[in-house]
Amino acid sequence: MSIINHIAASIFAVCVIIHFLSVALALPRVRSPQKGVRVEVRPSVTLVRPVCGLEPFSRQTLDATFDLDWPDYEIIFCVDDPGDPVAALVRELIDARPGRNATLLCGLERVSGNPKLDNMAKGWRAARHDWIVFVDSNVLPPIDYLHRLFLACDGDGDGGMVSAPPAGAEPIGFWSEVECALLNATQARFQYAADSLGFGFAQGKTLFFNRKTLENGGFEALGREPAEDAAATRLVRGNGGKVHLADPPFPQLLGRKSFKEVFGRHVRWARLRRGTFPLLFLPEILVGLWPPLLALTLLLGQMGIAKTKLILIGVGFSTVWYLPELFLIYAARWPLNWRSPLTLIVRDLLSPALYITAFMGKQVVWNGNVIPAARSASRRLTSID
After folding, report:
1. Domain 27-257 sits in which CATH superfamily?
2. Which residues have CB under 8 Å from 36's CB, separation 6+?
3. Rounded distance, CA 332 to CA 75, Å?
4. Residue 272 above 90 pLDDT?
5. pLDDT band at residue 9, thresholds of 50, 70 and 90?
6. Contact 50, 139 (CB under 8 A)
7. How many CA atoms lie less than 13 Å away from 329 in the CB half-sphere?
8. Which pTM value belongs to this model?
9. Torsions phi, psi of 172, nearest 5?
10. What does the alpha-carbon distance between residue 135 and residue 231 come to, in Å, rounded to a whole number?
11. Torsional sign, CA 236, 145, 198, 286
12. pLDDT category, 34, cuts 50, 70, 90?
């Protein structure tokens, strides 16, 4: 067997093992949580929600913040511009729940080159409790949200933290369903698989920790990386703590998305992963159907198998490849319909383009702000029109 064939066989074997193993590891983590499981000790919690602009489900996701099953928690909404339309919605929701300890903080404070982190800073400084959770505005917290975070915490209040990947929900239109394939069947699957193997890492949709976690470096330590979740992961690991994942993932309500929105969002995330954890990003090119399919085609072609048989084998292999992912989506009760196999195929067609584009720029654009994608770049923020 030639060196090329050895390489192709190795790529095929590695891809297949990783694919099926990741599904097997993620499967028990993404199923619906056991009903009635609650923590006995329920300390006071500060819940910080940074908001910026109205989103399709803003009223639903933000209103759910007031209905959590927890005896004592305060809610701090943070917005840069008091004239932002979402600020009016937040004020309306607060006024409708006069019995809840909730407030809206407005204003801009520069602590990093990350505009989201800058928005969160005032919530951190105003928090009255030692247990603090940052949750993005488009995440829908279930009624047992805090119970599930504390259950995942495993008593690690001295340096550890809890996070959770988002699960795309309420998609409207084909491209929104493609984003579900990217968020759920790919990102959530691999994040839970990594966590099950002891390599948990944070995702910025939910960041939950004790105040002691940030004593070494303070809140500004989260600005050491372009993305606060990458900085939180490094900080926790550097202090000897662990990043735990709550399961199953919490819904991120999507609504209607265009191709441009989906591609742009995932290019931004890919560049941030490439900039913050470059060695871990490099193998991402092997994720998806095409690397093992091309390797298999090369191997079988070298054996002199006719093109017709190659096509049939390729179709059969593709079917076997996608069945575990479809079962994972079904078991997790994620959005699933007759278009789901097509969305997985389109996701895998997009993946090489996302990977290559991640190397074609050193900056990302978020809400009109240009942010360096690598930790070595300038941490200051540059506004654009």
Report:
1. Spore Coat Polysaccharide Biosynthesis Protein SpsA; Chain A (3.90.550.10)
2. none
3. 29
4. no
5. very high
6. no
7. 27
8. 0.89
9. -125, 110
10. 16
11. negative
12. low
Higher pLDDT, 268 or 189: 189
Please tell me the distance from the alpha carbon of residue 316 to that of residue 311, in angstroms, as a whole number: 9
Residues 166 and 185 sit within 8 Å (Cβ to Cβ): no
Q: How far apart are CA 20 and CA 321, in angstroms?
A: 8
pLDDT exceeds cutoff 70 at 114:
yes
User: Residue 209 corresponds to which amino acid?
Assistant: F
In order of 173, 190, 281, the CA distances from 186 in angstroms are 19, 6, 14
> Quick one: which of 26, 19, 10 has its CA closest to 320?
19
H or E element in which residue 207 lies: strand 206-210
Q: Tell me how far CA of residue 25 lies from CA of 17, 190, 191, 196, 348, in angstroms.
A: 12, 9, 10, 7, 21
- Calculate helix-pair angle for 115-126, 228-238, nearest 10 degrees: 60
Residue 35's nearest CA partner among 337, 248, 190 is 248
Q: How far apart are CA 250 and CA 162, in angstroms?
A: 13
Closest to 250 (Cα-Cα) out of 328, 169, 178, 344: 169
State the helix-helix crossing angle for 307-332 and 3-30, rounded to 10 degrees.
20
Domain ranges of the chain: 27-257
Provide the token pair at 178: 């493609």
Residue the block writes with tokens 């470096």: 217
Phi, psi of 139 (to 5 degrees): -90, 135
Distance of alpha carbon 13 from alpha carbon 19, whole angstroms = 10
H or E segment to which residue 119 belongs: helix 115-126
User: Token pair for residue 290?
Assistant: 């095409």
DSSP character for 34? P
- Cα 299 to its chain centre, rounded Å, is 36
Quote the CA–CA distance of 336 and 329 in Å, as a whole number: 7
**Alpha carbons 71 and 38: distance in angstroms, whole number:** 13
